[in-house]
Amino acid sequence: MERDSLEMDVVFVGAGPANLSGAFHLARLVREHNEGITAGTRQGKSLGEIEIAVIEKGSSVGSHILSGAVMDPRALQELMPDFAAQGAPIDTPVVEDEFVYLTKNSHIKAPITPPPLKNHDYLIVSLNRLVAWLGEKCEAAGVNIFPEFPGAHLLYDENDCVTGVRTGDKGIDHHGKRKANYEPGVDLMAKVTVLGEGSRGSLTKELSQRVNLNGGSEPQVYSLGVKEIWELPKGRFRAGRVTHTLGFPSDTKTYGGGWIYGMQNNVVSIGYVTGLDYRDPLIDPHAEFQLYKTHPFIKSILDGGKMIRYGAKTIASGGFHAMPQLFHDGVLLAGDCAGFLNSQRLKGIHTAIKSGMLAAETIFDALFARDYSSRQLSKYETHVKNSWIFPELMEVRNFHAGFSQGRWMGMVNAGLQTITGGRSWGLFDRTTTEPGHVALRQLKDYGYTSGDPAQRYGALKFDNKLTFNKLTDVYHAAVSHDEDQPSHLHVLDTNICATRCAEEYGNPCQRFCPAAVYEMADDPLTGRRELKINATNCVHCKTCDIMDPYQIINWVTPEGGGGPEYKGM
Ligand SMILES: Cc1cc2nc3c(=O)[nH]c(=O)nc-3n(C[C@H](O)[C@H](O)[C@H](O)COP(=O)(O)OP(=O)(O)OC[C@H]3O[C@@H](n4cnc5c(N)ncnc54)[C@H](O)[C@@H]3O)c2cc1C
Fold this sequence. Notes:
Blueprint: E1 5-7, E2 10-13, H1 17-39, E3 52-56, E4 70-71, H2 74-79, E5 90-93, E6 96-102, E7 107-109, E8 123-125, H3 127-140, E9 144-147, E10 151-156, E11 162-167, E12 170-172, E13 178-183, E14 187-189, E15 192-195, H4 202-211, E16 222-231, E17 241-247, E18 256-262, E19 267-275, H5 285-294, H6 296-302, E20 306-316, E21 327-328, E22 331-333, H7 349-369, H8 374-377, H9 379-386, H10 389-395, H11 399-403, H12 407-420, H13 436-439, H14 454-457, H15 470-475, E23 489-491, H16 497-505, H17 509-512, E24 518-522, E25 529-533, H18 543-547, E26 553-555
The protein binds flavin-adenine dinucleotide.
């Protein structure tokens, strides 16, 4: 097969805050250096023209970006001190914080907001708008941006050094045959490739398995954030108000919490995070969120309002102990795919931006040294350790592990680590966490007789006003994929579904997927119960790849441009 090959110097995979900041910062470092040489204010040689590319699987920069989002502006200030003057689309500064504990029918407002949840002077943003703006800044700085270009495979030399990325083919039908619009993917060759794919990146997973990047760390644990945007009656929830909740509807053994962020024009971002290390096989994170909205405290906020958008995405919650090695020959990892998120604060935008900048500084030095080996690129880890990211993540390193022993122990641990700077005296440390597919227990362990969710969510009804079923919600994520393409959800052994999985777990894929992608249905031809994959519904959250108890679901990138459209979320 004939493929084009393009020589770049640096390729960033994924146009999220991490990589766009990295690409922008690198382009600026190179420009400032070269200008300094020309002006005689710097010594050394000009680096010449450095070709930088960012590829993105979404239809445009920002279309697959989903977040809360309250942003700690620290890193953006470092990247662009005059970001406000440069037109950064900030929705509103935080003016009011509250932390509310929800019991089944009532609520208790904490007299003071716990320090990690204080957000005063932080900024509420629509992250996809911010990212689209960063993309424009990158283009103005000379970075090549390629939307609709999914990174399908990494390219390696004979020594497993990463030499670039192959983008996905276009125009292949569901039988794997070429259609009239067939276009082979392109090989983008690079001295350094930066993976900034976000949570559970597919190339990051491939690379980690191939060169064992996780050898020295704990397995990553994830959470799933399910979110809606609502328009509320005027004056109901003021712009700049930030509410975090704990308690209902999560049971005390399951990690979970909610948020409501007030934005301009009477719009709120509301969502619920469920730890994907839950044990009850009937848990359905989308249903948890729907139940959340029925609580009297939340319902009173949403009453009379209208849901306008929906989205779901996983969050890498394992923190410091679960961070993989951040470099290998020819490649660096930045942002969520490297586990930079601070899960106690539910904040990863600032650490993603900062990690992208540190990756850029590492690459800048490597360009001078003309050395792209692990030896040179390992300086990235030193930069991270010397930056403010390290103390921030160290202090909360045992936060998620604390919750593996239940909500109360988790809260005690969170309180203690705030006072002691993260010490937990071995009580709540990394060894207590299990990855999602291991944590998930079988039906029999919970005394369930089948996978019928009514055994857990009997009271939950979808009334299409306050609560919505998955299909209605998915409609509001504006998902679209070309239907005639190979499924991007590879289930390696479907024989297990109607037999072993049905018996042991009651086919949990039907519940953990927040977009109704997986469905057990009777095949009209064979009469057998089989797994039906509605791949076109997929919102690219990656939950299935994480939670499948047999680890036989492999999420790979679909044809470029397919997926959710989160503009305005
Ligand atoms: C529901 C939710 C709420 C959150 N709330 C907050 C908050 O209030 N404050 C905060 O600071 N943080 C919050 N976060 C975390 C924050 O959004 C992330 O930490 C941050 O977005 C990480 O940035 P990133 O650049 O690493 O990855 P992402 O933002 O995930 O961007 C990755 C990009 O890479 C693209 N991509 C992935 N794989 C490929 C591929 N193979 N080829 C091409 N493109 C690819 C994706 O389409 C995406 O555009 C929240 C996250 C979620 C899910």
